[in-house]
Specification:
Residues 4-47 form the Transposase putative helix-turn-helix domain. By secondary structure, the chain is of the alpha+beta class. The protein folds into 2 domains: 5-170, no CATH class; 185-208 and 254-386, 2-Layer Sandwich (Nucleotidyltransferase, domain 5), CATH 3.30.420. It contains 12 helices and 14 strands. Strands 2-6-7-1-5-4-3 form a 7-stranded antiparallel sheet. A 5-stranded mixed sheet has the order 10-9-8-11-12. Strands 13-14 form a two-stranded antiparallel ribbon. The radius of gyration is 25 Å and the shape is globular.
């Protein structure tokens, strides 16, 4: 039985336990990057596709020669290699949107995976629980919610502010046959001024960073940029002061990120509990937040304005909100419908007149045909509610290869040619 839901708790390790988990996190990152390079090299030089079993054997040999690798629990190292193998499986799957696996940065979130049989969880009292980790022992965590099932895997991570432990739990989660309120439909418009506007007139928004935090974060990023420029000129390594600045940036960013995640989870929980159908615009968020710099030959225009718009879109968590909706809908039976996004903000929800001049400002909508007045975001949400479902988008390899020229080679040869160009096997 696989895990079908997750539980995340605030972990409270001692200083010694935190230091050891930090070292393991860097070891896991090194192991993932090294295994990725090993696969790429084996295909480029020998046309051999390494798989999980072979790389686990190499890991066993590395543990005999490198003490700091042997310090990492063997189960955790094997879990890292399984994650890499699954990343390749997703890339090879034509129906999966994932691209080729990439290296993990040093600045990425530290994480140490464990299989379910390697950890033990027990409850200490009403507020505290404990998880027993290999080579670390018992680590306390805040028991903020019940587990609700059998633990299948665990991941210990550090987000820049605190340590957390996440459990993959088999809780037999099944969507109900019908929603508790079967005839309820709501349209949701996502915006940059107001995060969420509903077709029934409700508007939900929250500031994730205080003005002081925004100023402090801008100051720290500017300081980090000056330190990095000076380091490159000298050709030196990163100083301790620069590491402290980066750590402070990570802590502040993590606080903002946690508030954003809390807001989208709160909104998704209420929408799915109250409505049988939730309609959203089908938005290409990745394309909407792409950089506007352009190239040296064709530089972009209004680059600073585009960068500000990108930050505003990402700050509201549009994509995270859709993921939260889809996750919550599994327990309530809510249907998530995505509709075409074109002209929803310019079309009158009463008479259907579509004109750019209908939207007088960010918040004001006045139809030039029938004179209907409303909040612009609420009017767009009503149009989303009344729109028909959009055609499903291309996924997987169809998305990645849609801009390539047609080839006369059979599909197998085309895949082999693409593998040679990228240096990674697609078998």
């Amino acid at each position: 039985m696989n895990a079908d839901t997750g539980r995340k708790y605030r972990l409270c390790p001692t200083d010694g336990q935190a230091d050891r988990l930090t070292a393991w996190g860097h070891t896991c990152r090194w192991l993932y990057n090294t295994a990725l390079e090993q696969r790429q090299f084996a295909w480029q030089q020998r046309k051999v596709t390494l798989r999980l079993a072979a790389q686990c054997a190499y890991l066993t040999e590395a543990r005999k020669e490198l003490g700091w690798v042997a310090d990492l629990p063997a189960q955790s190292g094997q879990q890292v290699l399984r994650q890499l193998d699954q990343a390749y499986q997703n890339w090879w799957n034509p129906q999966h949107p994932a691209g080729a696996p990439t290296r993990k940065r040093k600045s990425a979130r530290l994480s140490v995976p464990f299989p379910g049989q390697a950890v033990q969880v027990r409850r200490l009292n009403r507020r505290w629980g404990a998880v027993i980790l290999p080579k670390v022992g018992e680590v306390k965590f805040r028991w903020s919610r019940p587990l609700g099932g059998a633990v299948r895997n665990a991941v210990v991570s550090f987000d820049g502010v605190a340590w957390h432990v996440g459990f993959g739990v088999h809780a037999s989660v099944k969507a109900p046959a019908a929603h508790a309120r079967p005839d309820t439909i709501v349209g949701v418009d996502r915006g940059v001024k107001v995060a969420l506007a509903m077709s029934d007139g409700r508007m939900w928004n929250r500031a994730f960073a205080t003005p002081g935090q925004e100023r402090e974060l801008a100051r720290l990023k500017s300081k980090a940029g000056r330190q990095e420029t000076a380091r490159r000129k000298r050709g030196a390594t990163t100083s301790h002061r620069a590491r402290k600045v980066r750590a402070e940036i990570a802590r502040t960013s993590a606080k903002i990120r946690n508030r954003r995640r809390d807001f989208v989870m709160w909104a998704a929980n209420r929408l799915c509990a109250q409505h049988a159908v939730v309609k959203l615009e089908r938005l290409n968020i990745e394309g909407m937040t792409a950089t506007g710099k352009g190239t040296i030959a064709e530089p972009g225009t209004n680059v600073r304005q585009k960068a500000g718009l990108n930050r505003a879109i990402l700050d509201k968590g549009w994509g995270l909100f859709h993921v939260a909706l889809a996750n919550q809908a599994r327990t309530t039976g809510t249907q998530i419908v995505r509709v075409p996004a074109a002209f929803t903000s310019q079309r009158c929800s009463r008479c259907g007149n579509t004109d750019r001049s209908n939207r007088e400002s960010q918040a004001t909508f006045r139809c030039g045909s029938c004179g209907y007045q409303a909040n612009a975001d609420v009017n767009a949400a009503i149009n989303v509610r009344d729109a028909a479902e959009a055609a499903p988008p291309l996924t997987g390899r169809a998305v990645r290869d849609r801009n390539r020229k047609a080839s006369c080679r059979p599909p197998t040869q085309r895949r082999q040619r693409a593998a040679l160009e990228t240096g990674i096997s697609r078998r």
